[in-house]
Amino acid sequence: MLLVDDSRLQRRILRALLERWGYDVAECGSGEEALEICRAQPVDLIISDWMMPGMDGPEFCRAFRALPRESYGYFILLTSKSETVEMIHGLDVGADEFLTKPVNSSELRARIASGERILRMEHQLRDKNRQLTDALAELRTLYDALDRDLAEARKLQQSLVPERHRRFGASEVSLLLRPCGQVGGDLVGFFPAGPGEVGLFSADVSGHGISSAMLTARLAGLLGSRSPDQNIALEPAPGGQYRARPPEEVAAHLNRLFLEDIETEHYFTLLLAIVTLDTGRMRFVQAGHPHPVLCRADGSLDCLGDGGLPLGLIPGAGFEGCEVGLRPGDRLLLVSDGITECPAPDGAQLGDDGLRCLIETHAATRGPAFLDAIQAGLTFFAGRDEFPDDVSAVLFEFG
């Protein structure tokens, strides 16, 4: 506590009173000297006379408020003035309380107690703010580390689809995969399915984020092209070769696997197709995935499949295989619901009709450029470059 008064007698009386109450008191006789003390050390509570030679009490208060401080300082002015205008001036320069001379000891003690309560609350608030700042800094560090990990996870997930385009004789496959966040739950791919056949798949794991991405990584291992002996869509054939299993059997096996061996609350949809390249025969299973669109060479469009149940949701669920014939010039498009359910600014979804419109608009475009055009059209429809769900597609063009 700092006591400022040009009267030595007044300082002695007040100091004795304050020390009797248990306060440590510093004192000085002018505003200039008091300001130097405040610059040198933090002072929480000041009792200053109004009328002093040189720098008076209000001037000292104004200068005190201008000092750089980490904490608040409570300022009490002693005055013989009682005019409202003078009191307003004191408040304007930053005074917290006024005491009229001669000072009443009970009133002084009450005003000091009031100031201490305010200072105590201010100190507690500052401590809470400091703790909050430290916590936010720690969270920022953790967030930055997580963001770096997610960036690496995104690279790893993109590596699950190492090829975005490949030719199979006169036919070709193109892929589109765009997570809505750092990582996502969509997966697309293709694999050689034995002599003269190619497998195509599009999967969508429920939810978003890391757990969904981990399941797509597991699916990539189960349906990948790098190790045919580990691809559950293939089975050994004579002569050390591999051949495609019926797609409906693969779906049933995946359903059992995710329900019995993989403990997760996620489920996923799947469209798995096996195409015989010389005849155009296509066998496929639709497990809750959006209908594949067959774009005939004559410009007509057909939505294939009957829907089916998602995988990893219902024990013992049955899955039916379907078959269709492709003719030269036909194109098959597999999409995730991130495309058909993409919302416009007004909330309306693209839907099957909107997808048909995009396909017809870009009917003359081929290969990866066609999928880029579909994505650009989706961006235009949504009115933004970011989508609320993962966007993925497989385009198979039969030659």
TrEMBL record:
Residues 118-156 form a coiled coil. The keyword Coiled coil applies. This is SpoIIE family protein phosphatase. Keywords: Coiled coil, Hydrolase, Phosphoprotein. The modification 4-aspartylphosphate is found at residue 49. The keyword Manganese does not apply. Residues 1-116 form the Response regulatory domain. SUPFAM superfamilies: CheY-like (SSF52172), PP2C-like (SSF81606). InterPro entries: Bact_Sigma-Reg, CheY-like_superfamily, PPM-type-like_dom_sf, PPM-type_phosphatase-like_dom, Sig_transdc_resp-reg_receiver.
